[in-house]
Structure formats: structure tokens, C-alpha cells
Automatic annotation (TrEMBL):
EC nos: 3.1.11.2
Positions of the catalytic residues: Y106, D147 (proton donor/acceptor), H248 (proton acceptor)
Annotated Mg(2+) binding sites: N7, E34, D147, N149, D247, H248
Cofactor list: Mg(2+); Mn(2+)
NCBIfam families, per the entry: exoDNase_III (TIGR00195), xth (TIGR00633)
Protein name, UniProt field: Exodeoxyribonuclease III
GO biological process: one example: DNA repair
UniProt-listed SUPFAM superfamilies: DNase I-like
Site, as annotated: Transition state stabilizer: N149
Marked site (Important for catalytic activity) residue numbers: D218
Organism expressing this protein natively: Methylopila capsulata
UniProt keyword terms in alphabetical order: Hydrolase, Magnesium, Manganese, Metal-binding
Length: 275
């Protein structure tokens, strides 16, 4: 079972990129973020023609999340992150796919910090930790997948000294991510690539892509009920170099069938070394 996350940075504007990648990579489950499309404008027909069922929560501007499943219809279990019924931003959707509960999230950016946007980010993170703890207590086989808008360590950011005061790298946010993982979640990419400098995002400005001046913002966290099935993890880095690409590249993991849960994980050869 291959699970991927991809911040598409506009699902309609970059639909050709998304469909090309789906055909090439053949993921079983895909979490999309930053749809930038209202609910009725999601390209459900094109996605279905590519062989994927979908559930989504659309929104204009910068938000919107979706879960795709190859050859199946995701069973939606939640359309928003619990904890704040007044939160109108489309940043979380949850669905069951082939025996795994998938939580697709787009955590707030939080800049400028300090300020109201940073406060919202911290509050959203607290709600996420509370929900994640409940899922662990219930021993749910679950993956929390998406754009977390956080670089957990200095290994996850090009020239970390330049990001000290940014909301993506402030100590409070890195601590929140660490506390989330320490509940019992496995950071899948880092688990299989503990010392590699791996990025999933390269800004459009300052020639960041060509300089490999990237960030690791997109994460796949696994609950203990499914973590033992992890066999591969990687980033389809080349997608960032395609014409009209998103500023993110898809990140993915592969899970063995339950019967093979005790296989020793191995690192993916598709993840390139740092340039």
C-alpha cells in the first residue's frame, strides 16, 4: 500500500501535473493540500477518469484538502479537525481507505510571528495533538499525512540560521511537532532516512530549486498499529522540476501487507542524496 502527500498549490491550475504524477507513481492513497478551489470546483471527473475515488473539503484562497484512493471510494469519517466548531478553514479531512484511517491535514503557516496567525497555528496544533492522542488511545491503524508547515530539525531546512524567527521553524512549533511524535507516532521518512538532508518544498523565489535550497514540510506519521508495516519512504523530487510545477514535491511511503508486518524496513533508493 503506497500512501502519498502532495501540496498541489492549486488543484485545477496544476491538474495536468497531478494527473501525470498519478499515472507515473500509481499511489494507492493520496492526500492533497492547498486545493485553492471551492467545494463545487473540485475536478472530480478528471480524478475519477484517472482511476481514483475522492473525498474533499474545498475552499477559496489558500486552503482545501482531499483524499484520493486508487480503485476505491474513501469512506469519510470526519470533515474537520475537532476542538473548534467555529473554525471555518478547510484544513483537515479524515477517511478510511483499505483498512487504514487517513488524516489529511494542512497545518496553518502562522506568519508573521508573533501575531494572530501564529496564535491560530499554535491553537490548531494543540487540537491536532488532542485528536491524535485519542486515536492512539483507541489503537486505530492511522496515518497523519500532509503539509505540517514545520521543519522539525535543522536537518530539515537549508541554512537554518535564516529561519530562526519564522513560524515554520520557531521553537514553539518544533516543540509541538516533537510532542506530537512523542505520543507514539512514527515520522516515516525520518525513520528510514535518519541522517539524510531531505526536502519536500522549494520556493519559487531566489532560484531555490536550482540551488536545492529546500525545506522538509510534508510529513507522514504512522500510529503503532501500522508503523511496523513500513518498508519504504521517499520523495518524488523530480516532480518539482516539471513545467508549471507546485513548489512542493510528493512525499510517499509504502506499507507491507499485514502478514508481512515484521519485515525489517529498508530505505528507498528513489530518494536522491542532497545536491
Amino acid at each position: 500500500m503506497k500512501i502519498a502527500t502532495f501540496n498541489v498549490n492549486g488543484v485545477n491550475g496544476r491538474l495536468a501535473v497531478l494527473l501525470r504524477w498519478l499515472e507515473q507513481a500509481q499511489p494507492d492513497v493520496v492526500c492533497l493540500q492547498e486545493l485553492k478551489a471551492p467545494q463545487g470546483k473540485f475536478p472530480v471527473r478528471e480524478i475519477a477518469a484517472a482511476g481514483y475515488g475522492a473525498v474533499w473539503r474545498g475552499q477559496r484562497s489558500w486552503n482545501g484538502v482531499a483524499i484520493l484512493a486508487r480503485g476505491a471510494d474513501p469512506i469519510e469519517t470526519r470533515g474537520a479537525l475537532p476542538g473548534d466548531p467555529d473554525d471555518a478553514q478547510s484544513r483537515y479531512i479524515e477517511a478510511a481507505v483499505k483498512g487504514v484511517l487517513i488524516g489529511c491535514l494542512y497545518l496553518p503557516n502562522g506568519n508573521p510571528a508573533p501575531g494572530p496567525k501564529f496564535d491560530y497555528k499554535r491553537a490548531w496544533f494543540e487540537r491536532l495533538k488532542a485528536h491524535a492522542a485519542e486515536m492512539l488511545a483507541a489503537e486505530v491503524p492511522m496515518a497523519l499525512v500532509g503539509d505540517f508547515n514545520v521543519m522539525p530539525t535543522e536537518l530539515d531546512v537549508y541554512k537554518p540560521e535564516r529561519w530562526t524567527d519564522d513560524a515554520l521553524f520557531r521553537p514553539e512549533i518544533r516543540a509541538a511537532f516533537r510532542e506530537l511524535v512523542e505520543q507514539g507516532w512514527l515520522d516515516a521518512i525520518r525513520a528510514l532516512h535518519p541522517e539524510e538532508r531531505i526536502y519536500t518544498f522549494w520556493d519559487y523565489v531566489r532560484n531555490a530549486w536550482d540551488r536545492n535550497a529546500g525545506l522538509r514540510l510534508d510529513h507522514l506519521l504512522l500510529s503503532p498499529a501500522v508503523a511496523g508495516r513500513l518498508t519504504e519512504a521517499g520523495v518524488d523530487r523530480e516532480v518539482r522540476g516539471w513545467e508549471h510545477a507546485s513548489d512542493h514535491a510528493p512525499a510517499w511511503i509504502r506499507l507491507a501487507p499485514t502478514a508481512k508486518a515484521k519485515r525489517k524496513p529498508r530505505a528507498s533508493r528513489r530518494t536522491p542524496p542532497d545536491a
